[in-house]
Write a structure and sequence with these properties.
The chain is of the alpha/beta class. The protein has 4 helices and 6 strands. Helix content is 37%, strand content 15%.
Length: 158
């Protein structure tokens, strides 16, 4: 089994879980039995359209059976569910910790949500301001890098 987690950085198990599925910078794909992992850049994260669909396709194409993120929108949720991928939302904290909690059965809500989509919630680290600030800072760094790249390309065209 493989678990795919939306991640803010390419730091593997130490990366923080991103609250955004389709626009996360990376996915960390983890084998929960061995804790071996690989990191995939979410190439669709900065796409003007279709980022969530591209992210869902990337997950499915890599044989992931469980997705964990802070939030997953309706479009990718339908795509993932149709492919038989279990979706768990409300996840925060470090990627490695989230996988360990999943393995330990800490996902407290087993029933589908009110939409009937099978979306689970429950692996939630206590909301800590430091974690949120860290996530925001990491996201800002990613956006800054992307912005500088766009500026360079624009300068080259002049």
């Amino acid at each position: 089994m493989l678990i795919g987690l939306a991640a803010t950085t390419a730091d593997g198990l130490d990366s923080l879980v991103d609250q955004r599925f389709g626009r996360c910078a990376y996915f960390v794909i983890v084998d929960p039995d061995t804790m071996e992992f690989r990191t995939l850049r979410n190439s669709g994260a900065s796409a003007p359209k279709g980022a969530c669909r591209q992210a869902a396709d990337l997950i499915v194409d890599n044989g992931v059976e469980v997705v964990m993120a802070g939030n997953v929108g309706d479009g990718p949720l339908q795509t993932l569910s149709a492919a038989g991928v279990e979706v768990i939302t409300g996840v925060s904290g470090a990627v490695g910790d989230a996988v360990k909690m999943y393995k330990g059965g800490s996902d407290s809500t087993e029933s589908p949500d009110e939409t009937g989509t099978g979306d689970k919630t429950g692996i939630i680290s206590p909301p800590e301001n430091d974690v949120e600030v860290s996530v925001i800072n990491e996201q800002m760094e990613i956006l800054d890098d992307e912005f500088r790249g766009v500026q360079r390309r624009l300068e080259e065209k002049k």
